[in-house]
């Protein structure tokens, strides 16, 4: 029911946008919120339309973030989030790009987007043309690489350390001890793009675990009955000794 309400409200809104600027949209849908897929070169025109049009009035810039899909040709996804205060409606604009393409900046429409574009550049290495201040904002000066890319090593390339003798911070290349390194040429992200797991082996492992569990339960049961049997035998011996007038002192046992 909730999805039907979304479709009834958002689909006419998306249909109106598509009829106004069909060239800038190649896919649109109501995936929880209105979502538009476009081309990077049309982003400024589409955002300008959503900002200026009377029936959209998306005058509030909420967020800009990215994602990395390593196996795709255009591996980097950018997501813009705009909000219309008048109509109480959010809209998401998405498109795919790569590290070689320059994305037009929307700073002339939303000046606050400059900081978000700097974060995306710092984390993913996506270039924004006409930003005016495309510098690193989260990492340090001289940082090598882009941390949120899937091919960036977890250890990084440079480490910062405080030297007690020099009384200052200094940078040096990451040096890992050979004995603690795992020389596995396969990338960990290949696991998510590989074929389905072998369920027959998983069933065999599950069967073996159940058999081991049953054997352990049987051994525990045997030990329990053996202990109970010995206790009953000792109790019967004490009763017979009392009946014959023999008292077993602990020192005699």
Task: Chart the SSEs and their pairings.
Elements: H1 2-20, E1 27-31, E2 33-37, H2 43-52, E3 60-68, E4 76-84, E5 89-97, E6 102-104, H3 113-124, E7 127-129, E8 158-163, E9 168-173, H4 190-193, H5 199-243
Parallel strand pairs: 2-5, 6-7
Antiparallel strand pairs: 1-2, 3-4, 4-5, 8-9
Write structural notes for this entry.
The protein folds into two domains: 2-138, NADH:ubiquinone oxidoreductase Nqo5 subunit (Beta Polymerase, domain 2, 2-Layer Sandwich), CATH 3.30.460.80; 200-252. It is flat, with a radius of gyration of 34 Å. The chain has helices spanning 2-20, 43-52, 113-124, 190-193, 199-243, and strands at 27-31, 33-37, 60-68, 76-84, 89-97, 102-104, 127-129, 158-163, 168-173. The chain contains five helices and nine strands. A hairpin with a 7-residue loop joins strand 3 (60-68) and strand 4. The chain has a five-stranded mixed sheet with strand order 1-2-5-4-3. The protein is an alpha/beta fold.
């Amino acid at each position: 029911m909730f999805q039907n309400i979304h479709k009834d409200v958002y689909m006419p809104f998306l249909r109106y946008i598509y009829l106004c600027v069909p060239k800038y949209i190649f896919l649109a849908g109501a995936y929880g919120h209105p979502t538009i897929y476009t081309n990077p070169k049309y982003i400024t025109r589409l955002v300008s339309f959503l900002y200026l049009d009377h029936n959209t009035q998306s005058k509030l810039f909420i967020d800009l973030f990215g994602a990395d899909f390593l196996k795709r040709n255009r591996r980097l996804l950018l997501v813009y989030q705009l909000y219309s205060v008048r109509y109480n409606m959010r809209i998401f604009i998405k498109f795919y790009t790569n590290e070689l393409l320059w994305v037009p900046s929307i700073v002339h429409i939303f000046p606050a987007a400059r900081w978000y574009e700097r974060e995306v550049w710092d984390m993913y290495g996506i270039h924004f043309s006409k930003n005016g201040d495309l510098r690193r904002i989260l990492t340090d000066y001289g940082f090598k690489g882009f941390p949120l890319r899937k091919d960036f090593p977890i250890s990084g390339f440079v480490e910062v350390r405080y030297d007690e003798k020099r009384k200052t911070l200094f940078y040096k290349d990451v040096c890992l001890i050979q004995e603690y390194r795992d020389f596995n040429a396969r990338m960990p992200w290949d696991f998510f793009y590989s074929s389905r797991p072998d369920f027959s082996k998983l069933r065999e492992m599950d069967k073996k675990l159940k058999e081991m569990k049953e054997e352990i339960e049987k051994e525990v049961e045997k030990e329990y009955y053996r202990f109970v049997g010995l206790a009953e035998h000792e109790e019967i011996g004490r009763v017979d000794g009392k009946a014959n007038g023999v008292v077993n002192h602990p020192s005699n046992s």
